[in-house]
Design goal:
Length: about 425
């Protein structure tokens, strides 16, 4: 394998029709992560339907998101949308005393009519301070992909973080609680017990930033968040993303070295979970080994996932497409990804589908809108969005991550046997 992997591979950049969800989708996992936050989308009924269909029906508790509907009078400029928004927020906060953070989330309709949510957030923050902090970010699907909603949300939170000169570790990126607890447990066993996480579960959880803050990213799509933290003086710990045994170990080693913790300590702490991860991945690798995979751009997880599948599961990557490639975040994974696949950024969906049909990969990772048509053409697909909603980081989830890719191939094999009989 080349020492530089795919570092020097020319990137095929395409700018055409795209097939992705919008950033509002990120609210589905963010509202579960931040327990005292509420996400108020300023958008159309279509925005509301998207969130309802993506999140399902909340039966036992009120959801922490909603939509302030822009109707015809707002869109035509016949009503003062700012006054109407103030009324909606006042009613919401009077009814929900548990809200400590209110996010005003921009949408395609609110951005088209140039509704200034930044000023609205400033005005409402002054009105409801100190009980509620109001922040705005864009969840619009114009020229973005759905995971950028989290990036925009966290980046908007960074300017509100208190300043601190303390030497500290800040982990950026929303993880399921069970995965975050595992990560914090490993870091504590390595001697790093005082770790802040962005986003925090509650507004009162102390998350600070400053010139002695070192930032470790756990999600590959947080480029704007990293830029915002860097502007506050933080230093990025470059590392492969913690997918699979190899990626998790490399991530922990990079964090450990940044704080003077020896590799021997990392080896001792991770010996047992590494062994469990290898055994779990090996079961799925029996199906995946030798198979080809084609990533269409969707979630921005594509490059680290391709690294995991090729190095730990024995797959061959034909093309690895990502909506956007942040060189600072992706460099460690690109260096480990063996040279050979096409690396593409952006999308011209018709041209990419032509390449998929020509290559006939064993597995195509793509969005929901493309999966069914490709299945109808006899191709095996994996829904990319499931990789965002499923716990897949670090050791204990490594087998589940590999299983997400092996199951479609197992299903195809069963259907082919039944058809033959």
């Amino acid at each position: 394998m080349s020492a530089q992997g795919c570092t020097a591979t020319p990137v095929l950049r395409e700018r055409g029709q795209r097939e992705v969800f919008c950033g509002l989708t990120s609210i589905v996992w963010l509202h579960r992560k931040m327990q005292d936050a509420f996400f108020l989308v300023v958008g159309s009924r279509t925005c509301a339907h998207l969130l309802q269909s993506a999140a399902g029906v909340m039966i036992f508790a009120e959801p922490r998101f909603g939509t302030a509907i822009l109707d015809e009078t707002d869109l035509a400029g016949l009503a003062c949308a700012q006054d109407e928004l103030d009324n909606v927020v006042t009613q919401l906060l009077s009814r929900r005393s548990d809200i400590r953070q209110l996010f005003l989330v921009g949408s395609c309709p609110s951005e088209v009519i140039k509704l200034d949510l930044e000023k609205a957030a400033e005005r409402l923050s002054q009105q409801f301070a100190p009980r509620v902090r109001v922040i705005n970010f864009s969840g619009s699907g114009i020229e973005t992909t759905f995971t950028e909603g989290e990036d925009a949300c966290l980046a908007a939170m960074v300017p509100t973080l208190p300043q601190s000169d303390a030497a500290q570790l800040l982990v950026a990126g929303a993880l399921p609680d069970v995965v975050q607890d595992q990560m914090l447990g490993l870091l504590a066993d390595m001697g790093l017990a005082d770790v802040a996480v962005l986003p925090a579960a509650r507004a009162d959880d102390r998350v600070t930033v400053g010139p002695n803050t070192k930032v470790a990213m756990v999600q590959p799509f947080l480029g704007e968040t990293l830029a915002a933290l860097t502007r506050r003086g933080a230093t990025h710990i470059a590392a492969p993303f913690p997918f699979g045994e190899e990626g998790s170990t490399a991530w922990l080693r990079a964090v450990a070295r940044a704080f003077g913790v020896s590799d021997a300590v990392v080896d001792r702490v991770t010996e047992a979970p590494r062994a469990r991860a290898r055994r779990a991945v090996a079961q799925a690798a029996e199906v995946l080994s030798g198979k080809s995979v084609f990533f269409l751009p969707d979630s921005q997880l594509e490059i680290p996932l391709a690294r995991f599948l090729t190095r730990e599961c024995g797959m061959q990557a034909i093309e690895v497409g990502a909506p956007f490639i942040h060189s600072g975040l992706m460099a460690p994974d690109l260096a480990l990804l063996e040279a050979g696949p096409v690396i593409s950024e952006g999308q011209d969906v018709d041209l990419q589908l032509d390449r998929v049909r020509a290559a006939r990969p064993d597995l195509t990772v793509c969005g929901l809108g493309l999966a069914n048509p490709l299945e109808a053409e006899g191709l095996t697909t994996k829904w990319a969005i499931e990789l965002v909603f499923t716990p897949v980081h670090f050791y204990e989830q490594a087998g589940d991550l590999a299983g997400l890719f092996s199951r479609p191939l197992r299903r195809r094999a069963i259907l082919q046997r039944e058809a033959a009989e």
